[in-house]
């Protein structure tokens, strides 16, 4: 085994748990890289729901999908509303927090409230053994607040329900991303948080 950077490691985790034909979620479509990866992973019978609040992100994702577009529902809405669009079990989900790369407006960023709400709802939909990956970028304005709120939230998830890891390369410069991965270890349809 070799050490991976954050994004390849997130993909590796999902490739080991998602099965062809499943439903999966790209909670932050961005420029479409994760959406394409997930669309390839789930095969012709599966479905990807890709969320973004920016039309430009969904346009970029659609262009990148090419022949995989029939496997993907592009949703112009906050990932916090995932339960309005996805009602059946999912095999996994991916988040890339921060702002849309190469955007005209880098002040449009993911927010802690919507990110945590989305994770909370996705955990209820996630299959046993499924994984949610969250790539955390905190080197921009608002990033540290989202990072801290997210870390506080995942620490309150019951260990009987989920396992949570933090994966990062410690000798990288300039605020490198780190990964939070959440694995569902038993069936439940309602997330109960531990008391502080």
UniProtKB/TrEMBL annotation:
<dbReference type="InterPro" id="IPR010719">
    <property type="entry name" value="MnmM_MeTrfase"/>
</dbReference>
<keyword id="KW-0808">Transferase</keyword>
<dbReference type="GO" id="GO:0008168">
    <property type="term" value="F:methyltransferase activity"/>
</dbReference>
<dbReference type="Pfam" id="PF06962">
    <property type="entry name" value="rRNA_methylase"/>
</dbReference>
<keyword id="KW-0489">Methyltransferase</keyword>
<dbReference type="InterPro" id="IPR029063">
    <property type="entry name" value="SAM-dependent_MTases_sf"/>
</dbReference>
<dbReference type="GO" id="GO:0032259">
    <property type="term" value="P:methylation"/>
</dbReference>
<protein>
    <submittedName>
        <fullName>Class I SAM-dependent methyltransferase</fullName>
    </submittedName>
</protein>
């Amino acid at each position: 085994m070799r050490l991976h950077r954050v994004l390849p490691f997130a993909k590796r985790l999902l490739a080991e748990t998602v099965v062809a034909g499943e439903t999966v979620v790209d909670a932050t479509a961005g420029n479409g890289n994760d959406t394409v990866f997930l669309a390839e992973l789930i095969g012709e019978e599966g479905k990807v729901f890709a969320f973004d609040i920016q039309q430009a992100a969904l346009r970029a994702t659609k262009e990148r999908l090419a022949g995989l577009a029939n496997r993907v529902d592009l949703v112009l809405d906050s990932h916090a509303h995932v339960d309005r669009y996805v009602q059946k079990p999912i095999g996994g989900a991916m988040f890339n927090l921060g702002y849309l790369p190469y955007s005209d407006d880098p002040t449009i960023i993911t927010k802690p409230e919507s990110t945590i709400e989305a994770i909370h709802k996705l955990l209820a939909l996630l299959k046993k053994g499924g994984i949610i990956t969250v790539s955390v970028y905190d080197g921009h304005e608002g990033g540290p607040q989202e990072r801290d709120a997210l870390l506080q939230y995942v620490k309150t998830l019951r260990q009987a329900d989920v396992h949570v890891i933090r994966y990062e390369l410690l000798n990288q410069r300039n605020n490198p991303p780190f990964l939070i991965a959440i694995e569902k270890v038993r069936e439940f349809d309602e997330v109960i948080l531990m008391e502080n």
